């Protein structure tokens, strides 16, 4: 989990590679835990420290989502499916749970 989370931050601007399913979900879990801890110790989601963490996580998460979608064999534009109300985010979660494409 630590290596996946480290990769989440060090590859924050890498849109070219891929992210495996396990790396993706371990990084999401670790980021949720760290975000919860930061929120708990800084006074909630309205604190400046939490807001900075959230915005930085959004940037790193965007590149990770692009890499995960590419690992499934789809184009990066599939991340926009989350813009469809209600159904889009659920569909994106289902997509990110799909196995990686075999390397040829």
Overview of the structural elements:
- This protein is mainly α.
- The model has no long low-confidence stretch (mean pLDDT 93).
- It has one domain (2-96).
- It is built from four helices and no strands.
- The chain starts with a helix and ends in an 8-residue tail after the last helix.
- It has helices spanning 2-10, 21-42, 48-71, 87-96.
- Helix content is 62%, strand content 0%.
- Helix 1 (2-10) packs across helix 2 (21-42) and helix 2 packs antiparallel against helix 3.
- The longest helix is centred in the middle third of the chain and has 24 residues, at 48-71.
Approximate shape: globular
Structural class: mainly alpha
**How many separate domains?**
1
* Main β-sheet description: none
Percent range of helical residues? 55-70%
Uncertain stretches of 5 or more adjacent residues: none
Name the quaternary structure. single chain
User: What gyration radius follows from the Cα positions, in whole Å?
Assistant: 14 Å
The helix tally amounts to 4
Helix and strand succession? HHHH
Kindly estimate the percentage of residues that lie in beta strands according to DSSP.
under 5%
- Per DSSP E runs of 2 or more residues, the count of β-strands stands at 0
N/C terminus separation:
27 Å
What is the typical, i.e. mean, pLDDT? 93
